[in-house]
Amino acid sequence: MPESQNVPWSAGTWTHPPLSTESGQELIATAVEGSDAWRHTAYGFVHDTEHALLAPLAVGEAMEVSFHAPWTGEFDQAGVFVRIDDEHWMKAGLEYADGHLGLGAVVTAIRSDWSVGYVDDWLDTEVTVRVSRWADALIVRARAADGPWRLVRVAPFDGDAAASAGPFLAGPTRSGLAVRFSRWTRTPADTDLH
């Protein structure tokens, strides 16, 4: 495949439509209050109401999404979502929680987990999240502006299953979270971890 292909906003299908969208060169999407994605672990609930704009992602490909958001509401989140079905998916990106901006991922295989680290210095920057699909794994990297890529997660993922990926947002605790997505790109997957 070519080194990099922009994915048109119109090429994706929403898992759950946002409250509103405006698209041109950029996509501005506003989350529905209470939207989220989580299954069971620690909290005891299932949320399947995230806003993810998805297009097919094959083994050997990567998706990159760049975005900027006003991180003010508890659990405001945006990044990349990769989905096989309701019980097998991953979301990776930024989430504002407990007064800090966190970079992390939730990997779900029937039950969800969550890994996160603070990146408060990324608060007012454009962030890019990149997910590479290998035969048995998803490799997540992220960076602020044009800074260095940071490894976020290596997660098991079924290489034989059909999967889709793309930008996502959710506003679990408030109305009005508007995320500005500036880029959605498909590239060859990273070939190395280090």
From TrEMBL:
Residue span of region Disordered: 1-20
InterPro entries xref list: ConA-like_dom_sf, DUF1349
Source superkingdom: Bacteria
Name of protein: DUF1349 domain-containing protein
Organism: Microbacterium galbinum
Lineage of source species: Bacteria, Bacillati, Actinomycetota, Actinomycetes, Micrococcales
